[in-house]
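INPUT
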Amino acid sequence: MEYRLNRRTGDSLSVIGIGSAYLGKAERDEGVRALRAAFEGGINFFDLAAGDGRAFPLWGEALGDVRDRVRYQIHFGADYTHGAYAWTLEKDAVLRSVDWQLSRLRTDTIDYGFIHCQDELSDWEAYRKNGVYACLLHLKEEGVVRHIGLSSHTPAVAGRILDEVPVDQLMFSLNPAYDRGRGEFANGSADERGALCRRCAREGIGISVMKPSSGGQLLSAAQSPLGRALTARQCLRYALDTPGVLTAMCGVRNAADVHALLHVFDGPEEEPAFTPGDSPESAQAAERCVYCNHCQPCLAGLDIGLINKCYDLARAGDGMAAEHYRQLSRTAKNCTGCGHCDKRCPFRVRQSARMAEIARYFGK
Ligand code: SF4
Ligand code: SF4
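OUTPUT
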C-alpha cells in the first residue's frame, strides 16, 4: 500500500480509503470481516458519511481495538439518529448525531471533523449562523476533533469556504466523467475543478476523492456517461494522478470487494483512462499537466511531472518549489524537444513546448 502525507496534519494516509455508502447493507459478520481485511491490507483511512446508520457498529467491532492506527472522517451535518442518512444544518441534531456515531464507533476522538456537504453558499451561511461551525471549532479546541475537513461537490463553494476558514482535508467528487462535464456531480467547469485541486496541492490541503468511479457507473458501458466502460484501476489512477489528491475513497459491500481493491494495481500497467485520440469533449480538460508522468520515459532523463509541478508552484509564489527546481540535475534546459512525451501524454499537453517555456522562466 502506498501512503501519502497530509502536510498540514502530518498524517500518512493510504492512497486507497474506504467509503461507507454500502456497508450498512452488509450482514454484520461480513461487514466486520470486510473492514478488518481492509485494515490488515494496509488501509488506514475511512470515511463515515454512511448511507445508513447500521454501518457504524461495524467499525466499532472491526477496528475498535486498533483505533489509534486508523483515521476517520466524521461529518458534522449527517444525521443517523433515525436510522437512514439525513442531511441537517441544525446544531442540536448535528451534535446528537455525532454523539450517536462516536458511541457506535467505540471512540471519543474524531480525526477529521468535516463541514459536511456544502454545495450552496446559502448552506454555508446557515451552517455558520446556526452555530454548527462554532461547535466544530469548540470541539477542536477541546481536543475531541483533531483536524477540520470540508466536503463539497461544487468548486466555487468549496473555494469560498477555503477562503474563509482553515481546512486540512477536502473531500471532493472527482472522476474522468465529472471533469468532462458529464454526470450528476459534474459541478463547475474543468478549469474551476482543476484550479481547486491545484490550490489544495499548493496549500497542503489533502484531497480525499469521493465517487472515483461515480458510484460504479463508469465501470459499465451501459451506465457510463462517457459511453464506454473504464476499469476500476483507470478510475483510481485518474484520481490519484490529480494534483492534491492523497486518497480515493471506495465504497465496498463485502470482503471480496476489499480483496479486489487491495489488488487493483497488480499486474502490468494499463492504458490511462484517456488517450490523445479520445473524443472532443475531453478537450476542455486537456492540455494541463497533472504531473502523472504517464509520458515517461523522457529520453533526456527529465522528471517531467516534477519539473512541471515546481514550475506551477513557483509561478504561484512558492519559493521552496523554485529552489527545489534549481537543485535538479536535469532541468527543462536539457529537453531536446524530441516530442516523445507529446505523443504519450493522455491529457494532450504539448510538453516539449512547455519545457521551452519552463527553461525560459527559470533560466536553466
Ligand atoms: S505531460 Fe502529460 S503525461 Fe506527462 S506528466 Fe504532464 S500530464 Fe502527465
Ligand atoms: S520533448 Fe523533452 S521532455 Fe519530452 S521526452 Fe523529449 S526530451 Fe523529454
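end of record. Residues 289-295, 304-305, 308, 341, 345, 347, 349, 351 surround iron/sulfur cluster (ligand 1) (CB under 6 Å).
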